[in-house]
């Protein structure tokens, strides 16, 4: 059994495994590459690449795809027509085309196959699979917003091409050429994205399998690898074997391919999830490049390797191309296995005028319709918004979701959990959530508890609740196939499981042994799933319990590529190959909805962590980067992976802090907590074979240093929450790469080891190298940056500065010009901080001004959607700091909720304002004037001034101005006009 090393060892064998693990760790820490296909081993990838090579040698005109001009018409903001593919025996295959120009400013290109739309094909092996190409990916990935067709400007149909303009001042244009078919997108006449520029378009149309003549006896036997009638290599077209499994392919070959060029762009990003750098690499070999395309086929890649285009657990086929002038995107909406090739070419060999770099990409998918979104924007931020208009924005989490999570495989009993809980308190270390992995169940049967080790789950949950803490338990999509287990009995009797190609219930192997898989494409299965989570049905669970969905790629230990056979059948008779990359999202979605409805009127935001994901999963919950290793390399790799999640619109992301496999050194674990404190999702996790490593176990000085990192995270929670709000409304990543924040500074375009937190101006560069005691941070702009604790100043546009980073220090800088909020009273959990007062940090820019935002709501319910929230802008100008309401405009009903919420928040005030980089003229000042709503006239607050030291900025503290966090107010320093900064 391929995965035997992952199965839970018996307790008796545990110590032996630990010993063996320690001895053999370096040798076993390697991905089983042979479990997963390379492009050459993936039939359609190989065929498409061969075709591309052929076209490249013959020239683009050899492309057999031509848009028939007689079919082109414009209808309701859409251009329709038929593309004709001429086959080698001169047959014309009809491929209906729809180009929609959307009100979000994006364009959508959809190409289908007429014969299959009509169901006019025959399936082999008496298959019951659906005859159409899969066309429902959009119903999972898209939200419906931003999809309305837009009014077109010009529609100009010529003899060789049709041009359409749209968007504000008709600045966007699409030129659709007929022969070969291609589309060129431009903004103000500058080419940005070109489809089929190289002629690699491919649509493997349906055709019957032509059986080869049987050779006469005695003659050499024909092999199935022999080229068939079409002259193409059909060795993998009709069936395909890999790792001992044969895919029966009842529809024959059906792949699609398209080349997409970004002229004038040398940087591309996105394509989550891969363990690769933020700036995507070329994939045609050569120094520093990959020699394989980026692959999307959600998989449980055991001990994944770094710096690799291999597939991982999730797929977001969205790519951003960026240059100083614009940011454009392509979203390839396809749920089947997909490969993306990237090549960067210098378009003019003479380096002088006109020379520029193009990024040429080539996308191929195994099945489905062709559905491509092209997005044109001026900046990465504007592009994120457009992408979010299509696929939705991050769900606003509960506050606990962004606090610290303590996990391991496994906390072995309810007493163990309670003990860990007490020890965190004893050591004054904050945490919000403790997690239970597989072993809490009775024999891996979800919705049960092991009665010996967890006799009193409710008692355990109650203890956690005393300090506002939560429990997360794992529930996976495989259901143990065991007679008498009510869940599997229901799954079977209600016919809600995934089927095999013969339409019998599919059986495979996972943690519980023989298992069946719930088919969450089926609405009835989702309804049933909901019923299992009802409080009155689910045993041992109260309202502070949330869920972790793992293994939902799906992982099947004995299946091809550790997953399900592609010819398995899902609801609607779609083959698994059609929907594979969406499968995980459907399970995550089902659990999310089950939690929303587990009690009538509960109205709280669910928390569900997922391992597998697709475009749109951001609307449901959080993800983590799977089974990493306790190595410095994995710590470093987590940063570009999480930054890429942000680019790909799914920013609620984290990596296992400490590393899943192996035992981290104390230094590595400490540095990992310091980095993890800056992950949007912050959870420590460890494999069952590792030593216990709760932060309090490490001892001095490590425990205290980790506790400091945790306290820093907790004190900055108001700012993190505000960043989540931005992601939830605009799609802006929560942690932001250098190119994202400084889109005009080319030097930063490939930087992926330092990043900004939301719009706070906080710039962090976690230490990810053993023994390092300093880091070099690149500063793009001419603002002054300040050390977070000492206010030491750094300046130098376009330069690297060196920041000391002894073990106890996280290199964290504050960029001048920002205001951000904290809560500085140390507490045991975020829930206990709810009514605590705020500290505002005002970091004056060189112009003596600063600005920032704060978003606050109840941190739990959906009431914020009806007005119950506070959204303030803090602006320091003209010598004073003012708080201004920037919440949206309200309906009268919402206004009522807003007022009621503000009332509950009246006691929550600002207790401290720290102003960094104040002028010396404040030296003698001891009081400031406070004015505003609910403030008595003549009110003052104390100010203390702290002179600048050598290399450190001067700063001032205003204590207890007592202004309400939800009210308008202004605090005047009264220094006469503008505060002119010293720096
Ligand atoms: C695989 C997950 O990636 C890991 O985090 C978890 O501990 C194991 N499954 C066991 O549930």
UniProtKB/TrEMBL annotation:
Signal peptide stretch: 1-30
Catalytic reaction list: Hydrolysis of terminal, non-reducing (1->4)-linked alpha-D-glucose residues with release of alpha-D-glucose
Domain of life: Eukaryota
Compartments, record wording: Endoplasmic reticulum
Glycosyl hydrolase family 31 C-terminal domain ranges (all copies): 731-819
Pfam families the UniProt entry points to: DUF5110, Gal_mutarotas_2, Glyco_hydro_31_2nd, Glyco_hydro_31_3rd
Enzyme class: hydrolase
Entry's Gene Ontology molecular function annotations: glucan 1,3-alpha-glucosidase activity
Compositional bias (Basic and acidic residues): 211-227
Domain called Glycoside hydrolase family 31 TIM barrel: residue spans: 394-723
EC numbers on record: 3.2.1.20
Record has Signal as a keyword: yes
PANTHER family reported for this sequence: ALPHA-GLUCOSIDASE, BCDNA.GH04962
Family, per entry: Belongs to the glycosyl hydrolase 31 family.
Protein name from the UniProt record: alpha-glucosidase
Lineage: Eukaryota, Fungi, Dikarya, Ascomycota, Pezizomycotina
């Amino acid at each position: 059994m391929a995965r035997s090393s992952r199965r839970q060892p018996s307790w008796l064998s545990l110590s032996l495994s630990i010993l063996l693990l320690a001895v053999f760790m370096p040798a076993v820490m390697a991905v089983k590459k042979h479990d997963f296909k390379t492009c050459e081993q993936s039939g359609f990838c190989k065929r498409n690449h061969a075709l591309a090579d052929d076209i490249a040698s013959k020239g683009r005109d050899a492309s057999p795809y031509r848009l028939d001009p007689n079919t082109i018409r414009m209808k309701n903001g859409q251009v329709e027509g038929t593309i004709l593919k001429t086959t080698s025996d001169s047959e014309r295959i009809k491929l209906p085309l729809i180009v929609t120009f959307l009100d979000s400013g994006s364009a959508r290109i959809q190409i289908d196959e007429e014969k299959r739309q009509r169901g006019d094909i025959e399936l082999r092996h008496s298959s019951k699979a659906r005859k159409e190409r899969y066309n429902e990916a959009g119903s999972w990935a898209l939200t419906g917003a931003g999809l309305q067709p837009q009014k077109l400007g010009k529609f100009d149909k010529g003899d060789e091409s049709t041009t359409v303009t749209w968007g504000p001042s008709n600045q966007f244009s699409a030129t659709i050429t007929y022969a070969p078919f291609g589309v060129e997108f431009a903004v103000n006449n500058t080419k940005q994205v070109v489809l089929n520029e190289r002629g690699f378009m491919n649509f493997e149309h349906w055709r019957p399998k032509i059986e080869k003549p049987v050779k006469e006896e005695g003659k050499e036997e024909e092999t199935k690898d022999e080229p068939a009638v079409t002259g193409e290599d059909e060795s993998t077209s009709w069936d395909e074997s890999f790792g001992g499994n044969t895919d029966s392919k009842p529809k024959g070959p059906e792949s699609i391919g398209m080349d997409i060029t970004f002229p004038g762009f040398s940087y591309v990003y996105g394509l989550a999830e891969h363990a690769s750098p933020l700036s995507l690499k070329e994939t045609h070999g050569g120094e520093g490049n990959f020699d394989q395309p980026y692959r999307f086929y959600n998989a449980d890649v055991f001990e994944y390797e770094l710096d690799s285009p291999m597939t991982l657990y999730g797929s977001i086929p969205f790519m951003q191309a960026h240059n100083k002038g614009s940011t454009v995107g392509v979203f390839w909406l396809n749920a089947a296995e997909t490969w993306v090739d990237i090549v960067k070419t210098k378009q003019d060999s003479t380096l002088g005028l006109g020379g520029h770099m193009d990024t040429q990409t080539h996308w191929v998918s195994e099945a489905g319709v062709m559905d491509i979104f092209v997005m044109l924007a001026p900046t990465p931020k504007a592009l994120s918004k457009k992408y979010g208009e299509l696929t939705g924005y991050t769900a606003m989490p509960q506050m606990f979701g962004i606090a610290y999570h303590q996990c391991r495989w496994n906390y072995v009993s309810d007493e163990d959990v309670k003990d860990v809980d007490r020890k965190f308190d004893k050591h004054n270390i904050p945490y919000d959530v403790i997690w239970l992995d597989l072993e809490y169940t009775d024999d891996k049967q979800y919705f049960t508890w092991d009665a010996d080790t967890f006799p009193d789950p409710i008692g355990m949950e109650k203890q956690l609740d005393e300090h506002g803490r939560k429990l997360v338990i794992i529930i996976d999509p495989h259901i143990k196939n065991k007679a008498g287990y009510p869940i599997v009995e229901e799954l079977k009797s209600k016919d809600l499981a995934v089927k095999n190609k013969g339409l019998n219930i599919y059986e495979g192997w996972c943690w519980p042994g023989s298992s069946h898989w719930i088919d969450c494409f089926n609405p009835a299965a989702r309804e049933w799933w909901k019923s299992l989570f009802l409080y009155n049905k689910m045993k041992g669970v109260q309202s502070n319990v949330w869920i972790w969905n793992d293994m939902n790629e799906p992982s099947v230990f004995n299946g091809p590529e550790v997953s399900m056979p592609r010819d398995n059948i899902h609801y609607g008779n779609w083959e698994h190959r059609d929907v594979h990359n969406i499968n995980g999202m459907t399970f995550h979605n089902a659990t999310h909805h089950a939690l929303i409805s587990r009690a009538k009127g509960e109205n709280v935001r669910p928390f569900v962590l997922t391992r597998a994901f697709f475009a749109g999963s951001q609307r449901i919950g959080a993800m983590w980067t799977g089974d990493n290793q306790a190595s410095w390399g994995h710590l470093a790799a987590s940063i570009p992976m999480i930054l890429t999640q942000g680019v790909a619109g799914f920013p609620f992301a984290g990596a296992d802090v400490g590393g899943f496999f192996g035992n981290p050194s104390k230094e590595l674990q400490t540095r990992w907590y310091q980095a993890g404190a800056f992950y949007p999702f912050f959870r420590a996790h460890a494999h069952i074979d590792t030593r216990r490593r709760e932060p309090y176990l490490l001892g001095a000085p490590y425990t205290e240093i980790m506790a400091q990192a945790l306290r820093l995270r907790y004190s900055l929670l108001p700012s993190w929450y505000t960043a989540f709000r931005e992601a939830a409304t605009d799609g802006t990543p929560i942690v932001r790469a250098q190119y994202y924040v400084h889109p005009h500074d080319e030097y930063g375009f490939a930087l992926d080891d330092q990043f900004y937190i939301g719009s706070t101006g906080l710039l962090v560069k976690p230490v990810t190298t053993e023994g390092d005691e300093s880091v070099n941070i690149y500063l793009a702009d001419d603002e002054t940056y300040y050390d977070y604790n000492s206010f030491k100043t750094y300046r130098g546009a376009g330069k690297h500065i060196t920041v000391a980073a002894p073990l106890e220090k996280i290199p964290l800088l504050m960029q001048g010009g920002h205001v951000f909020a904290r809560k500085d009273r140390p507490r045991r959990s975020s829930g206990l901080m709810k009514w605590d007062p705020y500290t505002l940090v005002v970091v004056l820019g060189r112009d003596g001004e600063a600005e920032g935002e704060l978003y606050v709501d109840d941190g739990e319910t959906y009431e914020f959607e009806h007005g119950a929230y506070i959204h303030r802008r803090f602006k320091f100008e003209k010598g004073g700091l003012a708080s201004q309401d920037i919440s949206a405009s309200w309906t009268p009903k919402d206004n009522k909720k807003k007022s009621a919420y503000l009332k509950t928040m009246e006691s929550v005030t600002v207790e401290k304002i720290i102003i960094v980089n104040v002028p010396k003229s404040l030296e003698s000042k001891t009081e400031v004037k406070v004015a505003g709503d609910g403030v008595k006239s003549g009110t003052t607050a104390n100010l203390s001034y702290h002179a600048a030291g050598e290399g450190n900025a001067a700063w001032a503290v205003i204590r207890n101005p007592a202004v309400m966090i939800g009210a308008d107010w202004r605090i005047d320093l009264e220094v006469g006009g503008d505060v002119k900064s010293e720096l």
